Amino acid sequence: MEDRFHISQEDPTPIYAQLERAIRFAIVTEKLRVGEQLPTVRQLAVDLKLNANTVAKVYAELERVGILETRRGVGTFVRARQDGTVKRSLKQSRERELRAFADRILAEAHELGFSLEEVLEHLQSRRNKGE
């Protein structure tokens, strides 16, 4: 079973985005090291109970941006990068997710009749209680 990647069916984030984030995170935290081979598309799909097309899409996107490389007949590997591209890319991905999360919160707050100020005050109050 592939335990380096956490995917949740309950998370509103699309599965392919969760998997992409999980692979990037595994690389940044060195659970996956430069030059290390990833599971085959089919094997990862079986391990994570995902559609193989979803895994293939993520691998292709990560290869396109230079994080992974596929060696024909051998497999998919973490590509060596010296310029911080993986960390920068992960940060950009997390910023996009945070923006989408904030949009969902604000839309729901508006539907419930709360103002932005009320939401911010409440969050600040909860933060202060937690400290």
State the end-to-end CA separation.
Answer: 38 Å
The count of DSSP E runs of length 2 or more, i.e. the number of strands, is 2
Number of domains: 1
CATH superfamily: Winged helix-like DNA-binding domain superfamily/Winged helix DNA-binding domain
What does this entry look like structurally?
The chain has about 130 residues and is mainly α. The protein has a single domain (about 15-130), classed as Winged helix-like DNA-binding domain superfamily/Winged helix DNA-binding domain (Arc Repressor Mutant, subunit A). It is built from five helices and two strands, in the order H-H-H-E-E-H-H. A two-stranded antiparallel ribbon has the order 1-2. Helix 1 (about 15-30) packs across helix 3 (about 50-65) and helix 1 (about 15-30) packs across helix 4. The longest helix has 27 residues, at about 85-110. The radius of gyration is 18 Å and the shape is elongated. It starts with 14 loop residues before the first helix and ends with a helix. The relative contact order is 0.12. The mean pLDDT is about 85.
